[in-house]
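Sample entry (226 residues):
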Amino acid sequence: MTITGFHHMGVVTRDLDGLAARYAALGFTVSPRSRHLLSASPGSPPMPSCTANQCVYLGNAYIELLGIVDDTAPDPWHAREMGTGFRILNFETPDAAALSVPGIPASGVLDLERNVEGGRTLRARAVHLDPRSTPEGYIGVAQHLTREYTRGVEHPNGARSLATVRISATDADFDAIVDRYARLLGVAGASVFTVGDARLEIVRGPVTRLESMTVVGDSLSLDITS
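Predicted structure, serialized as tokens:
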């Protein structure tokens, strides 16, 4: 399959208002709250979910602030199991159905909808890798069907684009994680990968997790961990 860049990074919370306020205090323009409709299995219609998001739209990706906002609603994408913090990484592809990584089971193509400003409906498709195979976090690929609704916006702090995503891996996990991303991205194994106009770095650390992301812009280089 073809990976063209990073699609989005997801920060999971049970206090969406508080997380959105923290990103606004960092100088980001944060989109209004938007409730998810998600399909539970390939081919099934999207249903109302327990999650909503607010987003920081950059020129080449976006940061999703993903809130669990209704514990009585269905949880088709298992957000309650994710924990909190920087837990989600999706790569962008023009064809989610083409995902195939030998040895790594995946969900099949799932559909997503959510209403955005101006009465419009954002639509996307996603494939999730089996999280039992990705100890660093919840990894997948996503395909925009309404890309025009996720364009970068002006931010008071001058942010323009995502520069780097870092994954920390223990010595026990490091080689397997590097190999998996090499296969997913279709390149030779290395600890630093070019992903569109940004980079993915695998670094050694005491724990295996999605570690941080770096956003850059006019006189800005900001590392974000959650």
